[in-house]
Design goal:
Helix content is 36%, strand content 14%. By secondary structure, it is of the alpha/beta class. It has a domain of 111 residues: Rossmann fold, CATH 3.40.50.720. Bound molecules: zinc ion.
Length: 302
């Protein structure tokens, strides 16, 4: 099941086409003139509902096309879609602000999920693998609590600046920034995020003993947050997010936590922040032997 069929979701579908026989696709959008550049749609499909265009492309696979939004305002809808579709795994590739509430529902229903998230302009990205049956951290355990080196300031490019500096109300500007935060991005940037997400989906769906060593290690060490970068940005002589070369992906987990609020708001478990405090004191992410990219490069064919 894929929630959000845009630059990440539709590309994940393309990469898995022919390998999965039953799909559920959730998106309430139409293919726009901007989409064929970075999404798995053609110009002949402009104006078509995205889920219907993908259903045609995936034939003869069986596709349940849900042409409506599943977001934080409609969690009951989301629960009923899950009960109907009974997915083995859900890819959350919808808007960033929607992922937290949807992931909480998935955790509580025990549904495995992979959450893809682009940082501003998709220069960096995060993929979280959450497998409740394996006792992995939930999305909320790790997000925003990790020591991953200094953050890269978002570049305000001409397109974004002209939008942000219009005469807008504060609320409209806030919404505009949320909607545009991953834009503009190139197909190379978002394709890398889609490839890493797909590699995780493939491994998560395999029987445990058939999984690749890199994925088994990720589960065993609970380093289930993969942080990738398409470029390197130096901040005060240190690489942003600990990414030292373009295309690198690092693993982060409970040992990299720098702060927490006690019980996790997603799963209710108490988070071991002590180890993370050591990482924070050292002012470095706890990345020793945490390069995840070799396995991912092999697994994704990138
Ligand atoms: Zn949690």
């Amino acid at each position: 099941m894929v929630v959000g069929c845009g630059s990440v979701g539709s590309e994940v579908v393309r990469l898995l086409a022919g390998r999965i026989s039953h799909w559920t696709l959730v998106d309430n959008g139409c293919v726009s003139v901007f989409n064929p550049h970075r999404q798995w749609f053609g110009t002949a499909e402009i104006g078509t509902r995205k889920v219907l265009a993908l259903r045609r492309r995936l034939a003869p696979a069986e596709v349940l096309a849900i042409d409506r939004a599943c977001d934080a305002e409609r969690l009951d809808d989301f629960r009923s879609v899950l009960r109907r579709a009974r997915p083995h795994l859900v890819v959350l590739s919808a808007g960033t602000s929607e992922q937290g509430p949807l992931a909480r529902v998935l955790w509580r229903m025990g549904v495995p999920h992979v959450v893809a998230w682009a940082y501003p302009q998709a220069r960096y990205f995060e993929v979280n693998v959450v497998l409740p049956q394996h006792g992995t951290p939930c999305l909320h355990c790790l997000r925003s609590h990790l020591a991953a080196g200094p953050a890269a300031p978002p570049p305000v490019r001409d397109e974004l600046a002209s939008f942000l500096y219009q005469e807008l109300s504060g609320a409209d500007r806030e919404q505009a920034y949320r909607d545009l935060v991953a834009e503009p991005a190139t197909p190379v940037d978002t394709a890398r995020l889609a490839a890493v997400t797909t590699a995780c989906v493939v491994e998560a769906l395999r029987p445990p003993l058939d999984r690749a060593p890199w994925f088994r290690r990720l589960l065993r060490e609970k380093t289930t947050c993969l942080l990738g970068g398409n470029q390197v940005t130096e901040i005060g002589g240190r690489p942003a997010y600990g990414i030292q070369r373009p295309g690198q992906v690092i693993r982060l987990g409970l040992e990299d936590l720098v702060r927490g609020t006690g019980a996790c708001p997603g799963c209710g478990r108490c988070l071991p922040v002590a180890a993370g405090e050591r990482a924070a004191e050292a002012n470095e992410p706890n990345l020793s032997s945490r390069a995840a990219d070799e396995g991912l490069l092999l697994a994704s064919g990138a």
